[in-house]
Design goal:
single chain, about 575 residues, mainly alpha, globular
Amino acid sequence: MSDPAESADPTTPQEPPRPPERVPRSRAGAVSVFAGILLSRLMGFVREGAFARYFGVGPHQDALTAAMRVPNVLQNLLGEGALSASFIPIYSRLLEEGREKEAGRFAGAIFGLMVAAAAGLALLGILLAKPIVVLLAPGFLRDAAAVAAGRMTVDRFALTVMGIRILFPMAGLLVLSVWALAILNSNRRFFLPYFAPVLWNTAIVVALAIAGHRLVDTRNVAVQIQLFQVACWGAFAGGLLQFLVQLPLVFSILRGFRPSLSLRVPGVREALAAWRPAVAGRGVVQLAGYIDLFLATSLATGAPAADRIAQTFYLLPISLFGMSVAASELPEMSRLRGQGPALLGRVRRALRYVAFLNVPTVVGYLVFGYLVVGLYRRGNFGAPGNWLVYLVLCGYSTGILATTTSRLLQNTFYALGDTRSPARIAAIRVGTSALVAVPLMFLLDRFRLAALVGPQAGGALFLGSVGLSLASGFGAWMELYQLRAALRRKLPEFDLPWREDIRMILLALAAALPGALVWWRLPSGLHPILKALIVLGTYGVSYLALAKVARLEEIESLLAGVRRRLGR
């Protein structure tokens, strides 16, 4: 989403807490991360619902997808996984050794360097907006001629350039927000940093709601362009709020904090050495995203939009059930470096828990995905968009379990001080996905959606974006295979919990039967939200009940945690 070697300071590390004391902390951390991400993702669904309502699966949504994707290079390269790999292990170790003031000075130096880098790159993004769009969304270049000839009503290239110039500074703010997240995570304050994106989503939704109320004819092209601008400025305001809301708690925790650009602060050079390969790994991941964007803009209109909406659902379980566990485990695994058996036991437990949560999600998307996507059916988002997004989601769903498992294995490498292996393996994933995507997507883009679901439900959309999502799933499994092999060379006793995964898959398939039966028996005129709640609720309860009957360790642990909380 780095080689945290031993600190150059000769201070003897304190004995780490005993494992029985750390496990509840990590579990509580995972719950806090889960709660924060859940609220953020729910608000993200509201945001995407607003986008779907006003823009549908069409050119404005295509431009918004490109405009929001491009500046994320700052957030993902300077923050996210790179910061987790380079900053958190060193900062956590300083805290564990009782060197709080040194940790504060280290945090201040990293903050100063990140501000300088983010500001410089944001400025370059504003100045070079047009060349960036030419490079990453070349399919939009033909829009101006198409508009002039009357074949299109919207120039997606011009819209994307406008959006990038607003959103690049926003990305700089989000990078600083990730720095705050790293500080809070290392101090086991998990909820606030993962809740903070709620403010980003809320700012966009509120801005669109106010503008949409004032601009009555939202199907008008000129009105949709105004709404596009409103969405971008709302995102900028939300990025500022997301950063500022974390600062009071961050400053109450830090000791000895002083922003600087010094490379002489203990830990900074070590972090930069760890950061470079981590950035390479994140850069490969970002390259994959930009390759997808590059390819999607070469497909029929609506492909980037369908891909974006499908990814909203695809990323939900990855964030909730992968990131929440991985984020809470990284500081604890970093403290277990050098303790092979303890580290291996923690990784195994986390892998089973991730599978327990993600397996039913994959089966649920494949079986009930059309119903889930139908929650957006209003305004400019109709049956054709519903069908295309569902099919794209099915493609992405094939890689959910592999992606969430890989995220945890990547953090295991980071805890072991190895950021080069995940970077190298990520490059293999990108190459594999691209090799599969190019022929598959162009092959499927020859077929209309209407040929599969009927003229009335299919509209004028094509199936090329389904090829992109299927290729992504294939690449995810290739990455997991490589990560497993590489980790076994470091921890020979490690292996993936295949037997437990198969049991969970069988339980999820069995649980889907009562859900499908309820869906079949419900009246067709029932409100989509109510229908989804009933069907998915039946499926979820059935899965948990079957897991209880099968005596899965994860359901027992989950129920024990619930009982403890209710007993307080």
